[in-house]
Design a protein that fits this description.
The protein has about 220 residues and is of the alpha+beta class. The protein contains four helices and twelve strands; from the N terminus they run αββββββββββββααα. Helix content is about 20%, strand content about 30%. InterPro entries: Cupin_1 (IPR006045), Germin (IPR001929), Germin_Mn-BS (IPR019780), RmlC-like_jellyroll (IPR014710), RmlC_Cupin_sf (IPR011051).
Length: about 220
């Protein structure tokens, strides 16, 4: 290959890696990461090198880490997020998932996933679930065991256990790296200028400081 063609090829790869709007289509049946070969990192992607398919076993495609709830937060939520880092079998398949458990009255605070649509299936319980579209219209209702709700990519959504027993939700994403931003933490825990927040929300400096202490773990309480 000539030097000119080589340069064009490299430019094409870099451009593709930085302009993909979603997970790339796989070019083989599966790609089990080979930890010995490391990873290639770009601005938007982490590309894991594959081990030889002859080394694959059934266990590579089975994950057993969601049998019991995770650790609960002070909002009554326990979440176990599953991505290729802990379940290599889903690498390059364009998906990831989560088990979420909610205590009675527990909430999954408003948040969004910038790179994925989510399907939430109620394994057990009664969960008030919903999302807000770009016109600030709320789509929300209580969904029961066996029902499913979809949260479109990039839209703020939320959940609250309104039943009398603990609830379990299984969420699936159409990206292996959906990303997540919790609204309270993004606003009050990110270092946005206090004066701007005071004007935006009509809060006093004392109230802003209170919110900072709650949502910014880096600040001294």
């Amino acid at each position: 290959m000539s030097s000119t063609l080589t340069l064009l090829f490299v430019c094409f790869i870099l451009l593709s890696a930085t302009t993909l709007a979603s997970d790339p289509d796989p070019v083989q049946d599966y790609c089990l990461p080979n930890p010995k070969l490391g990873a290639i990192r770009t601005a938007h992607l982490t590309i894991l090198t594959c081990k030889n398919s002859s080394e694959a076993t059934t266990d590579d495609f089975v994950f057993s880490g969601m049998k019991v709830p995770g650790n609960f937060t002070d909002t009554g939520l326990a979440a176990i997020s599953v991505n290729p880092t802990i379940f290599p079998g889903i690498n390059t398949l364009g998906m990831s998932f989560v088990r979420a458990d909610l205590k009675v009255g527990g909430i999954n605070p408003p948040h969004f996933h910038p790179r994925a649509t989510e399907i939430a299936y109620i394994v057990k319980g009664s969960v008030y679930s919903g999302f807000v579209d770009s016109t600030n219209r709320v789509f929300a209702r209580v969904i029961e065991q066996g029902e499913v709700m979809v949260f479109p990519r990039g839209l703020v959504h939320f959940q609250m256990n309104v039943g009398k027993t603990p609830a379990t939700v299984f969420g699936s994403f159409n990206s292996q790296n959906p990303g997540m931003q919790k609204i309270p933490a993004a606003i009050f825990g990110s270092g946005i200028n206090d004066k701007l927040l005071e004007k935006a929300f009509g809060l006093s400096p004392k109230q802003i400081a209170l919110m900072r202490r709650r949502f910014d773990p880096k600040r001294v309480r």
